[in-house]
């Protein structure tokens, strides 16, 4: 599947944060960085894996 947007700035112009995508940040220092850029409906279960791992 080809990318719909060329970059994140283009996505921001066409989609609404909180409705079409979201950014979750932790204000606590961790030894591990978890990124789920294909969460939601793009790749099944990526968001759920992120949520389980980030709660540890």
Number of helices: 2
Structural class: mainly alpha
> Which residues sit in consecutive blocks of at least 5 with pLDDT less than 50?
none
- Considering DSSP H and I runs of 4 or more, what fraction of the residues is helical? 25-40%
- Give the oligomer, counting copies of the same chain as homo and different chains as hetero: single chain
Global mean pLDDT = 75
Classify the beta-strand content into a percent band.
Answer: under 5%
Q: Give the terminus-to-terminus CA distance.
A: 33 Å
- Specify Rg, calculated over alpha carbons: 13 Å
Order of helices and strands: HH
In total, how many beta strands?
0
Shape verdict: globular
Describe the main β-sheet briefly. Answer: none
Present the secondary structure layout:
Blueprint lengths: L7 H7 L31 H9 L2
Description:
The protein is mainly alpha-helical and 56 residues long. It has a domain at 25-56. The protein contains two helices and no strands. The mean pLDDT is 75.
Keywords for this entry:
56 residues, mainly alpha, single chain, 0% strand, 2 helices, globular
Brief summary of the model shown:
This protein has 56 residues and is an all-alpha fold.
């Amino acid at each position: 599947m080809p990318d719909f947007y060329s970059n994140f700035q283009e996505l921001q112009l066409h989609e609404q944060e909180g409705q079409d995508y979201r950014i979750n940040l932790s204000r606590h220092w961790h030894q591990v960085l978890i990124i789920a850029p294909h969460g939601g409906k793009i790749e099944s279960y990526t968001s759920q894996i992120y949520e389980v791992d980030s709660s540890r």
